[in-house]
Every structure is written in C-alpha cells, then in structure tokens.
Amino acid sequence: MSSALVIGGTSGIGLAVAEQLARRGGVVHIAGRNPERLEKAMTAIDAAVPGEVQGHVLDAADAEAVAALAASIGPIRHLVITLAGSGGAGPLSDLPLDGLRQAFDEKYWPTLIALQATLAHLTADASITLVGAVTARAAMPGTAGIGSLNAAIEGLIQPLAAELAPVRVNAVSPGYVDTPWWDGLAPEARTAFFKQAAESLPVKQIATASDIAEAIVLLATNPNITGTVIETDGGARLTA
Predict the structure, then answer these.
(1) Other Cβ atoms closer than 10 A to 233
(2) Cis amide leading into 75 (omega within 30)
(3) How far apart are CA 233 and CA 197, in angstroms?
(4) Residue 154 is part of which domain span?
C-alpha cells in the first residue's frame, strides 16, 4: 500500500498537510528532527485524525537516514517537503551572509538531499510538492537573500518535472502565513505586524497553515498538474 510522507510535518503548514491528507485516506507519515515537536504534533493530529498518521524523528540533511525511512515506509505516493530557513532577511548592505548560508543549510540543501534520497522509493505516478515563498518572485526590499533561497527551491520545479516524469513535481509559493516561523516576534509585535500586513493585502487577511495546505494537497493529488508553482500569497506580489 502506497503512503504519503511529509518532511517538515511536525508544525505549521506541514502538519496541516498531513492532517488533510489523512482525512482523504491512506497512510500518512510525518518526519521532523525535533523529538519534542514531533511528540506534540502527534498528540495534536491524533486528536484530529485518530490513528491515521505515523511520526518519525528525521534529519532531512542525513541522506542515509532519509533513504532508510523511505525504504521502510515505501512505496511513497505523495512526497511533501516543507522546510524553513530562518535567516537571510535584511538589506543587502548589511545582510548577515552567515545567516543566509545557514538558511540554505536549513531549507535548500536538506530539500535537495531528501529528494535525491527518496527517488528510488516513489511510485511510478508519485507526486513531489515543495514549498517556496513569495519572496522568490516579488520585489520586496530587504528580501534579496531570503528571496534567492526560495527562488532556488522554486527553480527546481520545472527541470525536475521534465526529468522525473511521469512523477509530478510542483510547489506552492506562500506569502504571509500565521505559523511558528514568526515565533521570533513577541506576541504583541506579531499581532501588530500581521494587522498591518493584512491591511496591505488585496485579500485583507493573513493565511492560515490550513489555507496553504489546501493548495499543497491539490498539487499532490491532482493528476493533471506538474511543473507548476501555485502562488498562494493573498496578492502580496501585486502590492509589493
């Protein structure tokens, strides 16, 4: 029986994806490198979809560990990789390059490593779905670093869709999303920032993790979509 694997599925968008895939039936696995976060995620998702999701501690940058997990749960029908890089924001004049390198080490390289390590364990009609961000395509001052990171992720989509066919390869490009990525802000500052950001967006609201997850599940399950990046940014690219 084929399964779904969500790498980075222990919080935020990844956890919402796992829950939505589990509701559609089939076996869903979530993987993350933080055991405490995984345990918390499993408690939350078991309350929502009892017994439908299995959890694994995994460092996506460890190719051998990824391959071993993929082999143990395969064949994999839907692979979703949603990793976050926390550095790389700020004006170029004083951009901390070490922080940007770390962001690539947190998001780009583990994504590529995990992709390579799971290829042999995908079904012939599998889907691969990655997560970029609006900074890859919107002219927002202060995002040259983090924008290049997300552009690198989104730059994988069309070449791999052609190379790996009939496996389908897609991505979503979110804008502002209320997830733990923003936990570095104090609660009051976060609320104020989101209020200001929402007012600038055509949709006048900040996305939830479930909003983005719906787009990911569409890409993962619709057999006629490949080589596509869905912009699910509330119109941020229009007003940037």
Answers:
(1) 26
(2) yes
(3) 12
(4) 3-239
Q: Which residues pair with 7 in a beta bridge?
A: 31, 81
Side chain identity at residue 125, one-letter code: D
Question: What H or E segment, with its residue span, contains residue 41?
Answer: helix 35-48
**Residue 21 one-letter amino acid:** L
201-221, pLDDT tens digit by residue?
A: 999 999 999 999 999 999 999
Q: Are 86 and 44 in contact (CB under 8 A)?
A: no
CATH number for the domain spanning 100: value is 3.40.50.720
CA distance 60 to 31: 9
Can you tell me the distance from the alpha carbon of 204 to that of 171, in angstroms, rounded to the nearest whole number?
24
Tens of pLDDT, residue by residue over 84-107, are: 877 788 889 999 999 999 999 999
Assessment of whether the complete model's pTM goes beyond 0.85: yes
- CA–CA dist 68, 26 (Å, integer): 21
φ, ψ for residue 71, nearest 5 deg: -65, -35
**For residues 186 and 189, what is the distance between their CA atoms, to the nearest angstrom?**
5
Provide the number of structural domains found in the chain. Answer: 1
Using the 8-state DSSP alphabet, how is residue 60 labeled? T
**Residues 6 or more apart in contact with residue 40 via CB below 8 angstroms:** 10
What span, in angstroms and rounded, lies between the C-alpha atoms of 123 and 79?
10
How far CA 100 is from CA of 133, 134, 189, 204, in Å, comes to 15, 17, 24, 30
